[in-house]
Design brief:
The complex is a heterodimer of chains A (118) and B (115).
Chain A (H helix, E strand, L loop, with lengths): L2 E3 L4 E5 L4 E3 L2 E3 L5 E8 L6 E7 L7 E2 L2 E6 L4 E6 L8 E9 L9 E3 L3 E6 L1
Chain B lengths: L4 E3 L2 E4 L5 E6 L6 E8 L3 E9 L2 E5 L6 E5 L5 E5 L8 E8 L10 E2 L3 E5 L1
Parallel strand pairs in B: 2-11
Antiparallel strand pairs in B: 1-3, 3-8, 4-5, 4-9, 5-6, 7-8, 9-10, 9-11
Classes of the chains: A mainly beta (118), B mainly beta (115).
């Protein structure tokens, strides 16, 4: 069974600085998708960035980028020039491509609470 | 384009009662999935529906059930409520469970408190 692990329950970063959130996963599949979701105090989950496992190039969305290491099964999120609005709970998620398992369900990590200090 | 809409947003129920939560997906989305979020267990997958058929189910007891209608709207029902069912229930929609890795879009959730 697939698992997703976020080993940092909480992280702090100074405004305008850079922070990296860690995520590791375990799967026997070769084709899958990885996501980072942000959950602010409003509780609505918002997609931050996604990565297809078959792509070697790391995904980037403005100040957000990932370091995807497929062999190591690692998928970290880097937030550059941190802003106060980045403060939230961040969840790493895995989604099977479904070709082998026949399932497309998402598996989420336990989350990392990010605090941004002014 | 309207987002995923969940109703009710907040509700309080008594142990032993049942509850029905509703989810209207983004227009054009045919896949709806449900998640339970609690401080202790995090985000756990409940089930996924596509074209009125349940495609996947998480490890929850039979008290948790769901269904999807022809207009893709979905409901989930929890019977014989227990205190431990108190949680934020999140619904998410996507165009469909294809192999394209469709991103899921979440609603704001329904806060259920069981007393």
């Amino acid at each position: 069974a697939q698992t997703v692990t976020q080993s940092q329950p909480e992280m702090s970063v100074q405004e305008a600085e850079t922070v990296t959130l860690s995520c590791t996963y375990d799967t026997s599949e070769s084709d899958y998708y990885l996501f980072w979701y942000k959950q602010p105090p409003s509780r609505q989950m918002i997609l931050v960035i996604r990565q297809e496992a078959y792509k070697q190039q790391n995904a980037t969305e403005n100040r957000f980028s990932v370091n995807f290491q497929k062999a190591a099964k690692s998928f970290s999120l880097k937030i550059s020039d941190s802003q106060l609005g980045d403060a939230a709970m961040y969840f790493c998620a895995y989604r099977s491509a479904g070709l082998a398992s026949g399932t497309y369900k998402y598996i989420f990590g336990t989350g990392t609470r990010l605090k941004v200090l002014a | 384009k309207a987002g995923v809409t969940q109703t009710p947003r907040y509700l309080i129920k008594t142990r032993g009662q049942q509850v029905t939560l509703s989810c209207s997906p983004i227009s054009g989305h045919r896949s709806v999935s449900w998640y339970q979020q609690t401080p202790g267990q995090g985000l756990q997958f409940l089930f996924e529906y596509f074209s009125e058929t349940q495609r996947n189910k998480g490890n929850f007891p039979g008290r948790f059930s769901g269904r999807q209608f022809s207009n893709s709207r979905s409901e989930m029902n929890v019977s014989t409520l227990e205190l431990g069912d108190s949680a934020l229930y999140l619904c998410a929609s996507s165009p469909g469970p294809s192999s394209s890795g469709n991103t899921i879009y979440f609603g704001e959730g329904s806060w259920l408190t069981v007393v």
